[in-house]
Design brief:
The protein has 497 residues and is of the alpha/beta class. The protein has helices at residues 2-17, 410-415, 437-446, 469-496; strands at 24-25, 28-32, 39-45, 48-53, 56-63, 68-71, 84-86, 91-93, 96-97, 113-115, 120-122, 138-140, 155-157, 171-173, 188-190, 205-207, 222-224, 239-241, 256-258, 273-275, 290-292, 307-309, 324-326, 341-343, 358-360, 375-377, 419-422, 431-434, 455-457, 463-465. 12% of the residues lie in helices and 21% in strands.
Amino acid sequence: MRYNTFLFTGLLLLSVSIYAQESETDGKKSNKIEGTEKVDSPQAVGDKVRIKDGTTTLIEINNEGSAGSILLPSVGGLLSGSKLYSNGVNLFWGSSQLNGGGGATKINDLSDAKSDGSSLFLGSGAGANDNGTSNLNTAIGINALNLNLTAGSNTAIGNSSLYNNRSSFNTAIGYNSMFNNTTGTVNVASGFEALFSNTIGNHNTANGNKTLYNNVSGNFNTAVGSVALTANTTGYSNIANGFRALYTNTTGFRNTAIGVDALYSNSEGYSNIGIGYKALYSNLSGGVNTAIGYQSLTTNTTGINNSATGMNSLYSNKTGSGNAAHGYRALVRNTSGSDNTAIGHRALSENTTGWNNIGIGENAQVPDPTLNSQVRIGNTSISYAGIQVGWSVTSDKVWKEQIRTLPFGIDMLMQLKPVDYIRKNSESKTREMGFVAQDIEELLTGINYESQGFLTKDDKGHFNLRYNDFIALLTKGMQEQQELIEDLQDQINELKK
């Protein structure tokens, strides 16, 4: 377009500045420009119009049939100033060549692109300091790989990506991605300012907006998702997949977070696994925890060695350690209790500070959520419990103290009120034999039996009776009865004499 403008302007000036006066000399029409002494112009010769200086043709306009052309005679060399001319081969404007012969013939001829045959740099400042050897680098974008000198096999796509790089085998895609990298190697960063602060960290993968943004020297980290692992500085071998996963992690290591806000607050915790929305969300320094499920172990801060599987499992745990919760809302209210095992929907969901408790089954709850070492299998809806062999109950002396002879026997037995009944939740409506706990409570109060444990009450006020304790009571009663029988037999024998 610029060339056409020059030609059009030249023709226009030519047409309006020439005052033609015809004279016929040797069949030629000659006209002189008023006020000139040397230039005779124009001369019409056949289908040509020439502007001459004496015998020298300055410009010639030719008839090309359906169009016209302008012939610029050759000049000896390059001219200065705003002049349009030809050197016999190429067309020039001033000292700049206008036709294809003077344009870029390869990428390396462009002002904002260059290639040395092995490396390619596109963009102002891209690869500006590359030494031009076979470095096998690719940089696309303003200032991409700007300070790189000799390092090779790097790919930088985006404004200022890998700007400070001095090392090899890195890939950065996105504005300012891996901007500060110096000696870090075998890193992959994709996204706005991904791995921005990395300087010496190696073998990191960051995919997403500001992923691993603050990482300086951490190695073997993988972050996928906007701002995942963004605060990490020296932490290593972490995996974060999801928006803000492991967001505040700084020095924590060997953590795996999959899901939005998984392990969000973790700073120095180690060897944790959080899978699911806000799994292990509040964890700070707790280690070796496993949380799988929506908001599992969400409020855990310093607790260690916990395992939670299921939505809201161990949700409220803060400092409790060594807990295992498997099922929806299992151990959901536990805060500081440790070494608890809950298996089943809402199992041990009422437990708060109790430790070493076991709950198996749907909504299995121990009598007191603040006490320790309790076991509950099943819930209040259970109507049958069976086992192939008899129970073996620990009875070694090593586990007992303050041993004494049972102070109650036949007298206590005589006050018991054996009954049979139908359990309300029984599907078969068959009768069972036993005792009513309230009757036992009245009996124990009457005989002043304190510190006993075979009649207990749970946190809802419901009684539980330990039936195997009656074995000792029945034995003592039979012994007393036998003594009485033998005494009576002696009396009978005396009477028979």
